[in-house]
Amino acid sequence: MNTVDVRQLFKRAIQGDVDAFGMIYETHVTEIFRFIYYRVKQRELAEDLTQTVFVKIFARIDRIDTTYPKAYMFTVAKNILTDHWRKKKDEVFDSGDEHHINRFSHDADIEKKLSDTQDVERILSLLDTLPEEQQDAIRLKFIHDLETDEIAHALQTTPANVRQLQCRGLKTLRVQLTSSL
């Protein structure tokens, strides 16, 4: 769904159209969940926090600026995560549920699929070693397909800073990937 469609859905939701909010939820719940899951590494917790994001958006629907609606959703998600970590800062989180085994059908491409999956897991693992701002800038760009302006709005920074964060993060990833080969 493109930004114009999302803006229109938000405008309809602001005017009280509950179905429009339902469409916003259905369209974006997966990407918000993924964004949160990459941080907390626990499925149930990520589901709970994702629901909290949409409850907060719904509660504040009449005060939302529809200029960057996707960025707004990711900003709410980031704030929910910040609140969560503040409350739980002394607890140690078990990341044992982080890796789910991908099951492939037995076909001629199984080795290729397995290799691709291992490459993605390695990249995501290396991504976790970057500073949080670089991780967010890269994930929002390449995993969630946000535009630079939307990312800047979500991260509360400038577009130039977003590009710099992405550039530095990708450079670090490139070095780490080549050194691990």
Automatic annotation (TrEMBL):
One BP annotation, GO: DNA-templated transcription initiation
Annotated TM spans: none
Alphabetical list of Pfam families matching this protein: Sigma70_r2, Sigma70_r4_2
Gene3D superfamilies, per the entry: 1.10.1740.10, Winged helix-like DNA-binding domain superfamily/Winged helix DNA-binding domain
Keyword Transcription regulation: yes
RNA polymerase sigma factor 70 region 4 type domain segment(s): 121-173
Family, similarity comment: Belongs to the sigma-70 factor family. ECF subfamily.
Name this protein carries in UniProt: RNA polymerase sigma factor
Species whose genome carries this gene: Candidatus Magasanikbacteria bacterium CG11_big_fil_rev_8_21_14_0_20_43_7
